[in-house]
Design goal:
The protein is α+β, with helices and mostly antiparallel strands. The chain is built from seven helices and four strands. This is Lysosomal-trafficking regulator.
């Protein structure tokens, strides 16, 4: 098929400090999508997974506790966010992000000011961006999809505007 021998594809990578991944968290991460930023940028409780990407006959009959997973109050991503060690995203193939260990250390304000860091999740801290040493050139592949096409055109708002413009111009149902 023309691809060099030994080629491989990597979409995204998350590595944790301890074994926290079970079926429940694996399903949640799959529903969050291939981009690691949905886990790192979100606060606990405001994550909106795309369940349609997960539901299929195989997963529905795999013995997964769907009642617990779909009840967002029972699934707490804080454990994943607290133990996040590094992340890699194909959007930036030349950089890997390493997250420092969160600790209730004092800030470096000096002058008698002591502020305790309330945030205890590694994923919420500023990562250390490290340039990767590559022994070959990374060739990104972009897969086209309907959602990618909509995003490249300006998002769903453009289609809403066009639809409103057609309705505004009048005409019969066939013309619209």
């Amino acid at each position: 098929n023309g691809e060099p021998i030994g080629s491989w594809e990597l979409g995204g990578l998350l590595m944790f400090r301890k074994p926290v991944l079970d079926k429940k968290f694996a399903i949640w991460l799959t529903a969050l999508g291939p981009d690691c930023y949905t886990l790192t940028k979100s606060r606990v409780g405001d994550v909106k997974p795309a369940w349609r990407s997960v539901f299929n006959p195989k997963t529905l009959t795999a013995g997964i506790p769907w009642d617990e997973i779909l009840d967002s109050k029972k699934v707490n991503l804080k454990e994943l966010q607290e133990t996040l060690l590094l992340s890699y995203s194909a959007k930036r193939p030349d950089i890997i992000n390493i997250y420092p260990i969160a600790s209730p250390a004092l800030s470096g304000l000096g002058g008698g000011f002591r502020v305790v860091n309330v945030e205890q999740r590694s994923s919420q801290l500023v990562p250390i961006c490290i340039q990767l040493v590559m022994y070959c050139q990374a060739a990104p592949k972009h897969y086209s999809s309907f959602t990618t096409a909509i995003d490249s055109l300006g998002g769903p708002e453009v289609f809403l505007f066009l639809f409103a413009r057609v309705v505004d111009m009048g005409g019969n149902a066939i013309e619209q």
